[in-house]
Amino acid sequence: MRNDDSIFFKKLNPEARRRLIEKESKYQVVNTETGEIIQNYKPAPVVPYNQKQSYDKFSELRQHHKENGGFVLALCEEGQHVGERLENLTQAEYALLMVVGTYAAYPVDGNVFCYLRHDNGRYISKKGLVELLNIAERTFRQFYGKLISNEIIEENEDGEKLAINPMYFFRGDLDTIKPFAGDMKSIRIYRQTIRDLNKKFTGKSRKQLGLVYAVLPFVHFRYNILCANPSENYTDDVTPLSLGTLAEFLGYGDPKKLRQALRGIRVNGRPVFQFVEDDKDVRKRKIIVNPKVMFGGNSEALESISALFNESN
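Below the sequence we write its predicted structure tokens.
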């Protein structure tokens, strides 16, 4: 059986599998060009082209996840500025919060929350977190205090384990937390990409990186464009956010300064934010987010959006 068809063989019902195995034992397969008997041949089920194509597309999406370090789900209130939910966090702290979220591990023992863990599975303690974020002790104390007061992080009794609120970040099957999440919006953020960006944007420039988290509530679940209705299914009804409107949401008096800040965020030499330059008025320009940073869509959408971030000649 061809390796790429084995997954479909496993999905056959027991009777269909039995018939295929029976054929293996009864027949010899001959190469019609050489006359050679092919040993250990396994007949493969005929897979419809559209089913095979869907599987290939799914594999492309999984490869995208793998290339960017896997993902966690970031949850937020759709169309609501994150500052309304996290009033006492600064924009620079949004960036730190994203990094913390990338260490959410899969829940265990029937829990609906995730512990923070290193990639090797080791639990992250409070002391370990300050080392991980690589920030000054005073900055960490202020930030950590806000994580606790906003109930984003909870310590266990000995302080050696930190649980993260699944209403902010979750890793695993979203259905697990649906009863609690309700209508909250979720989108994949890519673990390694976010961590790489955090290494680049340190000190005062961390505020600039915080814009990535600030736009989460406006990213369309399929097209990765910033819009006023990110859950809208019908393409014709999607309402893109202009740069001017986004500037108002984020508290930027001058849209040009916001554009400059967004354009300055790059990953592996590619922009994190791409502008649709179809209007001379800067305020009316639309914005698309690089799917290597965050992405909510399927493989077909991924293919189209990724092309926009390829290097041009």
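Residues 49-67 form the longest helix (19 residues).
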